[in-house]
Write a structure and sequence with these properties.
There is one protein chain. With 292 residues, this protein is α+β, with helices and mostly antiparallel strands. The protein has a single domain, classed as Beta-lactamase (3-Layer(aba) Sandwich), CATH 3.40.710.10. Helices cover 48% and strands 11% of the residues. The strands form two sheets. It has a five-stranded antiparallel β-sheet with strand order 2-1-8-7-6, sandwiched between helices. Strands 3-5-4 form a three-stranded antiparallel β-sheet. A hairpin with a 4-residue loop joins strand 6 and strand 7. It is globular and about 55 Å long.
Length: 292
Protein backbone atom coordinates (compact mmCIF):
# COMPACT_ATOMS: atom_id res chain seq x y z
CA UNK A 1 0.00 0.00 0.00
CA UNK A 2 1.29 3.49 -0.90
CA UNK A 3 2.33 5.61 2.05
CA UNK A 4 1.69 9.19 0.96
CA UNK A 5 3.64 11.99 2.65
CA UNK A 6 2.91 15.42 1.24
CA UNK A 7 4.61 17.09 4.19
CA UNK A 8 8.09 16.12 3.05
CA UNK A 9 7.56 17.30 -0.54
CA UNK A 10 9.79 20.29 -1.32
CA UNK A 11 9.33 23.02 -3.91
CA UNK A 12 12.41 21.77 -5.76
CA UNK A 13 11.05 18.22 -5.88
CA UNK A 14 7.65 19.35 -7.15
CA UNK A 15 9.15 21.57 -9.84
CA UNK A 16 11.46 18.76 -10.95
CA UNK A 17 8.63 16.22 -11.08
CA UNK A 18 6.46 18.56 -13.14
CA UNK A 19 9.31 19.15 -15.59
CA UNK A 20 10.04 15.42 -15.87
CA UNK A 21 6.39 14.57 -16.40
CA UNK A 22 5.84 17.38 -18.90
CA UNK A 23 8.78 16.09 -20.96
CA UNK A 24 6.94 12.82 -21.59
CA UNK A 25 5.42 12.63 -25.07
CA UNK A 26 1.76 11.61 -24.88
CA UNK A 27 -0.82 10.90 -27.56
CA UNK A 28 -3.86 11.98 -25.60
CA UNK A 29 -7.01 13.53 -27.03
CA UNK A 30 -8.78 16.85 -26.50
CA UNK A 31 -12.60 17.19 -26.43
CA UNK A 32 -13.14 17.97 -30.11
CA UNK A 33 -16.87 18.61 -29.57
CA UNK A 34 -16.07 21.85 -27.68
CA UNK A 35 -13.95 24.35 -29.60
CA UNK A 36 -12.60 26.23 -26.53
CA UNK A 37 -11.30 22.95 -25.06
CA UNK A 38 -10.12 21.54 -28.39
CA UNK A 39 -7.99 24.60 -29.12
CA UNK A 40 -6.01 24.87 -25.88
CA UNK A 41 -2.25 24.44 -25.76
CA UNK A 42 -1.70 20.77 -24.96
CA UNK A 43 1.59 21.58 -23.23
CA UNK A 44 -0.06 23.54 -20.44
CA UNK A 45 0.65 21.79 -17.17
CA UNK A 46 0.02 23.24 -13.74
CA UNK A 47 0.06 21.78 -10.23
CA UNK A 48 -0.84 23.13 -6.82
CA UNK A 49 -0.37 21.27 -3.53
CA UNK A 50 -2.40 22.56 -0.60
CA UNK A 51 -1.31 21.01 2.69
CA UNK A 52 -2.79 20.88 6.17
CA UNK A 53 0.73 21.23 7.53
CA UNK A 54 3.74 22.62 5.69
CA UNK A 55 2.22 25.35 3.56
CA UNK A 56 1.41 25.32 -0.14
CA UNK A 57 3.45 24.58 -3.26
CA UNK A 58 2.86 25.42 -6.92
CA UNK A 59 4.69 24.47 -10.10
CA UNK A 60 4.30 24.91 -13.84
CA UNK A 61 1.24 26.70 -15.20
CA UNK A 62 -0.64 26.52 -11.92
CA UNK A 63 -2.10 30.03 -12.34
CA UNK A 64 -3.65 29.25 -15.75
CA UNK A 65 -7.45 29.19 -15.68
CA UNK A 66 -9.53 26.25 -16.86
CA UNK A 67 -13.12 25.09 -16.52
CA UNK A 68 -13.82 22.63 -13.75
CA UNK A 69 -16.18 20.59 -15.94
CA UNK A 70 -16.89 17.29 -14.14
CA UNK A 71 -14.56 18.13 -11.25
CA UNK A 72 -17.41 20.32 -10.00
CA UNK A 73 -19.57 17.24 -9.37
CA UNK A 74 -18.23 16.34 -5.88
CA UNK A 75 -18.86 19.91 -4.76
CA UNK A 76 -22.32 20.05 -6.25
CA UNK A 77 -23.05 16.87 -4.33
CA UNK A 78 -21.60 18.36 -1.14
CA UNK A 79 -23.72 21.50 -1.54
CA UNK A 80 -26.89 19.47 -2.04
CA UNK A 81 -26.13 17.20 0.92
CA UNK A 82 -25.68 20.32 3.04
CA UNK A 83 -28.78 22.13 1.78
CA UNK A 84 -31.20 19.32 0.88
CA UNK A 85 -30.00 16.40 3.00
CA UNK A 86 -28.79 12.91 2.09
CA UNK A 87 -32.30 11.42 2.08
CA UNK A 88 -33.50 13.81 -0.64
CA UNK A 89 -30.36 13.41 -2.77
CA UNK A 90 -30.17 9.62 -2.64
CA UNK A 91 -33.86 9.29 -3.30
CA UNK A 92 -32.94 10.43 -6.82
CA UNK A 93 -29.47 8.97 -7.48
CA UNK A 94 -27.47 5.93 -6.41
CA UNK A 95 -23.99 5.29 -5.01
CA UNK A 96 -22.81 2.44 -7.22
CA UNK A 97 -19.96 2.45 -9.79
CA UNK A 98 -20.67 2.25 -13.50
CA UNK A 99 -18.71 0.17 -16.00
CA UNK A 100 -19.95 2.36 -18.85
CA UNK A 101 -18.56 5.71 -20.10
CA UNK A 102 -19.48 8.83 -18.11
CA UNK A 103 -22.09 9.99 -20.64
CA UNK A 104 -23.64 6.58 -21.33
CA UNK A 105 -27.35 6.37 -22.08
CA UNK A 106 -27.04 2.59 -22.19
CA UNK A 107 -26.23 2.46 -18.48
CA UNK A 108 -29.29 4.59 -17.69
CA UNK A 109 -31.51 2.37 -19.84
CA UNK A 110 -30.18 -0.79 -18.18
CA UNK A 111 -30.98 0.77 -14.81
CA UNK A 112 -34.43 1.96 -15.96
CA UNK A 113 -33.74 5.64 -15.34
CA UNK A 114 -31.92 5.24 -12.05
CA UNK A 115 -28.54 7.07 -12.27
CA UNK A 116 -25.80 4.90 -10.81
CA UNK A 117 -23.96 7.71 -9.00
CA UNK A 118 -23.58 11.53 -8.93
CA UNK A 119 -20.18 11.44 -10.70
CA UNK A 120 -21.49 10.31 -14.10
CA UNK A 121 -23.50 12.66 -16.30
CA UNK A 122 -26.91 11.13 -15.64
CA UNK A 123 -26.44 11.53 -11.90
CA UNK A 124 -25.03 15.03 -12.29
CA UNK A 125 -28.05 16.03 -14.40
CA UNK A 126 -30.34 14.90 -11.59
CA UNK A 127 -28.26 16.95 -9.14
CA UNK A 128 -28.60 19.92 -11.50
CA UNK A 129 -32.38 19.47 -11.37
CA UNK A 130 -32.22 19.51 -7.57
CA UNK A 131 -30.06 22.65 -7.63
CA UNK A 132 -32.54 24.45 -9.89
CA UNK A 133 -32.22 28.22 -9.81
CA UNK A 134 -29.53 28.30 -7.13
CA UNK A 135 -26.53 28.50 -9.48
CA UNK A 136 -25.31 31.87 -8.21
CA UNK A 137 -25.80 30.77 -4.61
CA UNK A 138 -23.78 27.64 -5.34
CA UNK A 139 -20.93 29.67 -6.85
CA UNK A 140 -20.92 32.04 -3.88
CA UNK A 141 -21.03 29.14 -1.43
CA UNK A 142 -17.95 27.54 -3.02
CA UNK A 143 -16.00 30.79 -3.18
CA UNK A 144 -16.75 31.75 0.39
CA UNK A 145 -16.22 28.30 1.88
CA UNK A 146 -12.91 27.70 0.09
CA UNK A 147 -11.74 31.35 -0.04
CA UNK A 148 -11.29 31.22 -3.81
CA UNK A 149 -12.51 33.10 -6.88
CA UNK A 150 -14.29 30.78 -9.29
CA UNK A 151 -15.81 32.64 -12.24
CA UNK A 152 -18.15 31.59 -15.02
CA UNK A 153 -16.40 31.01 -18.37
CA UNK A 154 -18.99 32.70 -20.58
CA UNK A 155 -17.28 31.74 -23.86
CA UNK A 156 -17.16 28.09 -22.93
CA UNK A 157 -20.75 28.15 -21.68
CA UNK A 158 -21.89 29.55 -25.02
CA UNK A 159 -19.94 26.85 -26.86
CA UNK A 160 -21.44 24.14 -24.67
CA UNK A 161 -24.96 25.46 -25.20
CA UNK A 162 -24.49 25.60 -28.97
CA UNK A 163 -22.39 22.46 -29.32
CA UNK A 164 -23.10 18.82 -30.01
CA UNK A 165 -24.66 17.61 -26.78
CA UNK A 166 -26.60 14.66 -28.10
CA UNK A 167 -25.41 12.37 -25.27
CA UNK A 168 -26.51 14.77 -22.55
CA UNK A 169 -29.68 15.67 -24.46
CA UNK A 170 -30.62 11.98 -24.62
CA UNK A 171 -29.91 11.52 -20.91
CA UNK A 172 -31.98 14.58 -19.99
CA UNK A 173 -34.93 13.52 -22.15
CA UNK A 174 -34.98 10.05 -20.62
CA UNK A 175 -34.61 11.41 -17.08
CA UNK A 176 -37.45 13.85 -17.75
CA UNK A 177 -39.64 10.97 -18.88
CA UNK A 178 -38.83 8.81 -15.85
CA UNK A 179 -38.52 11.44 -13.11
CA UNK A 180 -40.59 14.34 -14.42
CA UNK A 181 -37.81 16.96 -14.42
CA UNK A 182 -37.71 19.81 -16.92
CA UNK A 183 -35.05 18.60 -19.38
CA UNK A 184 -34.03 22.04 -20.64
CA UNK A 185 -33.61 23.51 -17.16
CA UNK A 186 -31.67 20.41 -16.10
CA UNK A 187 -29.27 20.80 -19.02
CA UNK A 188 -28.78 24.54 -18.63
CA UNK A 189 -27.99 24.26 -14.91
CA UNK A 190 -25.60 21.38 -15.59
CA UNK A 191 -23.80 23.31 -18.33
CA UNK A 192 -23.55 26.37 -16.07
CA UNK A 193 -21.95 24.64 -13.10
CA UNK A 194 -19.49 22.74 -15.32
CA UNK A 195 -18.28 26.05 -16.83
CA UNK A 196 -17.16 27.49 -13.50
CA UNK A 197 -13.49 28.31 -13.96
CA UNK A 198 -10.45 28.62 -11.71
CA UNK A 199 -6.81 27.61 -11.49
CA UNK A 200 -4.97 24.70 -9.89
CA UNK A 201 -4.75 26.52 -6.56
CA UNK A 202 -8.51 27.13 -6.56
CA UNK A 203 -9.06 23.45 -7.31
CA UNK A 204 -6.80 22.30 -4.49
CA UNK A 205 -8.42 24.69 -2.03
CA UNK A 206 -11.82 23.38 -3.04
CA UNK A 207 -10.55 19.92 -2.21
CA UNK A 208 -9.72 21.05 1.30
CA UNK A 209 -13.47 21.31 1.92
CA UNK A 210 -13.40 17.51 1.77
CA UNK A 211 -10.02 16.83 3.43
CA UNK A 212 -10.45 19.28 6.29
CA UNK A 213 -14.19 19.98 6.56
CA UNK A 214 -15.83 21.94 9.36
CA UNK A 215 -17.18 19.67 12.13
CA UNK A 216 -20.78 20.07 10.96
CA UNK A 217 -19.84 18.97 7.44
CA UNK A 218 -17.73 15.90 8.25
CA UNK A 219 -20.43 13.28 7.61
CA UNK A 220 -21.45 14.75 4.26
CA UNK A 221 -17.84 15.25 3.20
CA UNK A 222 -17.16 11.57 3.90
CA UNK A 223 -20.05 10.56 1.65
CA UNK A 224 -18.51 12.59 -1.18
CA UNK A 225 -15.02 11.18 -0.56
CA UNK A 226 -16.33 7.61 -0.62
CA UNK A 227 -18.03 8.23 -3.97
CA UNK A 228 -14.86 9.76 -5.40
CA UNK A 229 -12.96 6.59 -4.48
CA UNK A 230 -15.40 4.30 -6.26
CA UNK A 231 -16.64 6.55 -9.08
CA UNK A 232 -14.39 9.59 -9.52
CA UNK A 233 -12.57 8.40 -12.66
CA UNK A 234 -15.59 6.72 -14.23
CA UNK A 235 -14.87 3.20 -15.54
CA UNK A 236 -11.17 3.63 -14.66
CA UNK A 237 -11.91 4.34 -10.98
CA UNK A 238 -11.05 0.89 -9.67
CA UNK A 239 -7.80 0.74 -11.64
CA UNK A 240 -6.44 4.08 -10.50
CA UNK A 241 -7.88 3.77 -7.02
CA UNK A 242 -5.86 0.60 -6.62
CA UNK A 243 -2.68 2.18 -8.00
CA UNK A 244 -2.80 5.41 -6.04
CA UNK A 245 -5.03 4.69 -3.06
CA UNK A 246 -6.61 8.15 -3.22
CA UNK A 247 -10.05 9.71 -3.78
CA UNK A 248 -9.83 11.25 -7.27
CA UNK A 249 -12.00 13.27 -9.65
CA UNK A 250 -11.33 14.24 -13.24
CA UNK A 251 -12.84 16.58 -15.83
CA UNK A 252 -12.59 16.71 -19.62
CA UNK A 253 -10.88 20.11 -19.42
CA UNK A 254 -7.83 18.23 -18.14
CA UNK A 255 -8.45 19.03 -14.48
CA UNK A 256 -7.74 16.40 -11.86
CA UNK A 257 -8.32 16.56 -8.12
CA UNK A 258 -6.53 14.19 -5.73
CA UNK A 259 -7.31 14.09 -2.00
CA UNK A 260 -4.67 12.85 0.42
CA UNK A 261 -6.67 12.27 3.61
CA UNK A 262 -5.16 13.85 6.70
CA UNK A 263 -2.49 15.62 4.64
CA UNK A 264 -3.85 17.82 1.88
CA UNK A 265 -4.89 18.08 -1.75
CA UNK A 266 -3.23 18.06 -5.16
CA UNK A 267 -4.90 20.07 -7.95
CA UNK A 268 -3.56 19.43 -11.47
CA UNK A 269 -4.30 20.77 -14.92
CA UNK A 270 -3.05 19.07 -18.10
CA UNK A 271 -5.38 18.88 -21.13
CA UNK A 272 -4.53 15.62 -23.00
CA UNK A 273 -7.00 12.89 -22.03
CA UNK A 274 -7.00 9.10 -22.05
CA UNK A 275 -9.94 7.18 -23.60
CA UNK A 276 -11.88 7.32 -20.31
CA UNK A 277 -11.64 11.13 -20.20
CA UNK A 278 -8.91 11.44 -17.55
CA UNK A 279 -5.80 13.63 -17.77
CA UNK A 280 -2.88 11.43 -18.79
CA UNK A 281 -0.05 13.54 -17.39
CA UNK A 282 -1.95 14.37 -14.21
CA UNK A 283 -2.20 10.69 -13.38
CA UNK A 284 1.48 10.15 -14.27
CA UNK A 285 2.48 12.99 -11.99
CA UNK A 286 0.52 11.43 -9.14
CA UNK A 287 2.35 8.15 -9.74
CA UNK A 288 5.66 10.01 -9.48
CA UNK A 289 4.54 11.76 -6.30
CA UNK A 290 3.53 8.43 -4.82
CA UNK A 291 7.02 7.03 -5.40
CA UNK A 292 8.81 9.71 -3.35
Amino acid sequence: MIQWCLERLSQQQLTSLVQQTQAVQVSGELPTYLAPLASVNQRRFGVWVERIRGGSLGAGDWADHFALMSVVKPFLLLYLLETRGAAVVFDQVGREPSAYPFNSLEQLLVDQGWPRNPMINSGALVMAALLGGETSQFQTWLNQRANIHLALDQDLLKAVQQGDNHHNQALAQYLAKVKGFDPEQMLQVYFWVCCLSGNAADLARLGMLLVQPPPATVANAQIVVDLMISCGLYQASATWGGRLGLPLKSGVSGALLALVPGQGVVGIYSPPLDPAGNSILALRLLERLASL
